[in-house]
Specification:
About 45% of the residues lie in helices and about 15% in strands. With about 425 residues, the protein is α/β, with parallel strands linked by helices. The structure holds uracil. The site of uracil has 5 residues, from helix 9.
Length: about 425
């Protein structure tokens, strides 16, 4: 290695450049990610890098280089043996949906925790079994493996401890390095904004959506991002088994309208980007038909069975874990529900035992909160705002303190109602 190049790739030089707001090259970013993943660059230096990136920001090309380096820090799935296009959705027939998801951390819920509320469901399939399930039923859902984007495992942990989570380029690189490792052709992103989201302001969520769509495009993957509101829960239920119950209701033609509508729209985009339908509208039509015909429920039943779970839950949701106690939280005044702090309501769910404060915590699949009111609904004094499902009175009291203070009931209704889907960011 020439003296010049070695100097340029010195981590101290890289740190100084980013600290002073200069743009890093692809080589410098790769050197940082590879060095940290191998253990040659210390956590102290990586923490300083993350903080400099958080404060100074990363350009679009730096974000793409970071994503690329994190993606190539581990294995990428080769799904070329499956002829159908591979399309995934992040958030939240005729296509393959290979989904690698996370667990809930902090106030957020995790797809894996929800699936694990189904007895026997295995989320830790090895890659060859994952590919087999995908080939047999067209969809499979597993957790991150040690082989996929190992750079993100270390960096995400550090971000958690250095207050550098809420940076759009760092979130983009973290999510996209894992999603792009799935070997997909297209990706539909549901970027949340509002009191329950990482990105509280719509402008930040839009920026994150743009970064992710741009990064996917640079890597040859078609992507669309829907910026959607999270100022109230989607549907009514919060909690692992409780959310599965709501999904099952939707699969049988019921379920909350907002959950069904958003799912149909995301499905419409998946069919369109996957080349199954000419337009998004045709994709939505197809998604509605698959729901109405029971084909979507059949698919879910089959996936559960192939992943070792009890498929009977799809027809008998009472087989899912249920909390011992239920108690309503009542409105202290009469008026309308005007706001809720979904992050804090999520924290209440964690305190009940439904989520984890530390990665090693175990979750109680049965507990949670069922909203009885949505934003804009009238509420009389003494009427239930929500019902808490709990297994420990002490935990219930801790959750009650938070919930009572964070659902607002006011005498008048704000005139402006915002749509659930705020914008659609395309890759053209
Ligand atoms: N989910 C991730 O995987 N990474 C982030 O940075 C945020 C959410």
């Amino acid at each position: 290695m020439s003296g010049d190049r070695q100097d340029k790739l010195n981590i101290l030089t890289t740190l100084r450049k980013k600290r002073d707001g200069e743009e890093l090259s692809r080589e410098e970013i790769e050197h940082f990610v590879q060095g940290h993943t191998r253990g040659d660059i210390s956590d102290h230096q990586a923490a300083a890098w993350l903080m400099a990136a958080h404060v100074r920001g990363l350009s679009r090309s730096e974000t793409a280089h970071l994503t690329h380096a994190m993606l190539h820090s581990g294995e990428q799935l080769d799904l070329s043996s499956l002829p159908a296009r591979k399309v995934d959705k992040h958030s939240a027939g005729g296509l393959n949906v290979p989904m690698i998801s996370g667990r809930g951390l902090g106030h957020t819920g995790g797809t894996l925790d929800k699936l694990e509320s189904i007895a026997g469901f295995r989320v830790n399939l090895p890659i060859d079994e994952f590919t087999r399930v995908l080939g047999e039923c067209g969809c499979a859902m597993i957790g991150q493996t040690a082989e996929i984007a190992p750079a993100d495992r270390k960096l995400y942990q550090l971000r958690h401890f250095t207050s550098t989570i809420d940076s759009p380029p760092l979130i983009c690189a973290s999510i996209m390095s894992k999603k792009l490792a799935e070997g997909i052709d297209a990706l539909v992103l549901d970027v949340k904004t509002g009191s329950g989201a990482f990105m509280k302001r719509e402008a930040e969520a839009t920026l994150l959506g743009e970064l992710m769509v741009d990064t996917a495009k640079r890597m040859g993957v078609r992507a669309v991002a829907l910026v959607t509101g999270m100022d109230e829960p989607l549907g009514y239920n919060i909690g692992n088994a409780l959310e599965v119950v709501e999904v099952i209701e939707a699969l049988h033609g019921g379920g909350p309208q907002d959950l069904v509508d958003l799912t149909i729209t995301l499905g419409g985009w998946m069919f369109h980007l996957g080349g199954r339908t000419a337009t998004v509208e045709d994709g939505e039509h197809l998604a509605r038909n698959l729901l109405a015909s029971g084909a979507a429920a059949d698919k879910f039943r089959r996936m559960i069975e192939l992943q070792g779970g009890d498929p009977r839950v799809v027809d008998e949701p009472r087989r899912l874990p249920k909390a011992k106690h239920q108690e309503d939280i009542l409105s202290a005044t009469s008026g309308y529900v005007t706001a809720m702090d979904c992050e804090l309501i999520g924290v209440a769910g964690v305190l009940l035992g439904g989520g984890r404060q530390h990665e090693s915590d175990t979750v109680d699949p049965a507990v949670g909160i069922v909203m009885q009111k949505k934003l804009g609904d009238p509420a009389q004094r003494g009427e239930a705002l929500c019902t808490v499902h709990f297994n420990s009175t002490e935990r219930m009291e801790a959750a009650r303190l938070i919930i009572e203070r964070n659902i607002q009931v006011e005498p008048t209704l704000p005139t402006q109602r915002v749509p659930l889907i705020r914008s659609v960011i395309r890759d053209n």
